[in-house]
User: Fold this.
Amino acid sequence: MKIFCLGGAGRIARESVKDLVDFSDFEKITIGDIDLKVAESIANGFNDPRVDAVCVNIADKATTIEILKEYDIVIDGTTISLNKQSTECIALAGCHGVNLNGFGDEFLFADIFKKNKKIFVPGFGMTPGVTQMMAMKLASELDEVDSVRVSHGAFRPIAFSRSISETTVYEYDPELPGRVVFENGKLIQVPPFARPREINLPEPYGKTTQYIIPHAETHTLSKALKHKNVKLIEVRGTWPAKNMRLIKALYEWGFMNNEKIEINKSEIGIMDCISEYLVSSKVGQTTELYGYSLHVEIEGKKNKQNKRLTAYHTHPKSDVKDWEGLRAYTRNVGIPMSIAAILISKGKTLTDKGMLTPEEAFNPDEVFKELEKRDIKIWYETEEI
Assistant:
């Protein structure tokens, strides 16, 4: 089988490519990116005859579709704002696919994937992605689920790439309709910095204050756990404390509205201006602590006994070879997308066609087994309440 890595020269997607090189048996692995020079440099660095690079611009839909038709699976590492276009290209090319974000309009093309008997999984990185696997694993231990609280700490620079800067602005957009909690059968919209909660993450991260974020888990888990009578689902996240202080100040002062201002007779959004500064400055490119930490807590009943089940994950520290610095973050995000593609290629999905949420696509144990091969481990705690 052949796999195409859309946006594969990005800092996260190139980790997906590395994982495919190390752990998959794809006969061809192509890095597709608008920046061919960088893509070729990355491809040459693997010194593997299976890996090559091509220039692709998804704004040119017809050409992109023709390129993708030569492949069986596409992993999509492009930004949130491009996911509608990229998913359409994957669908029309007749490929299987998986992307990192799961926040966009991917489901507009569900009928095409189903008609073509192809699988597409929107949102399979650490979160969304592995978090749903953790929640489903915990929920399988309970007869009823009262609450699900998904949390994560993403310890990375605030703007190490333009796509990450875009994600920051997206998640804290005051008007964003997707920032919701699931409560008593309804999705309720909340503002940025809603429902603060202290989450104890494993060392070296420690206690963090986290807030509601607009992630896909709220929607997908409310459907997947409907049979467990789930009443509350909240998804929280945090970045390094310094990053959070900046974002909160920008929100409180109205900068996150991205209103237009005029500079030297040119109009620009104020947040676009700030993002440009962060992307091009040292302060936006560095942080003190690198890595990723998932934490999922479920409360419910087993044999009429109230229980609290917790799962969290660990990975090699950022001073370990191949996990140095930023790679302690980017590997965590990129590896799950590679694992999803490998499982699809081997027919290890719960159903064989269509647009599938992570819960519908994979057996958590299969995902965890693959993660452990990469030294990413899931841990569990149980207590009666």
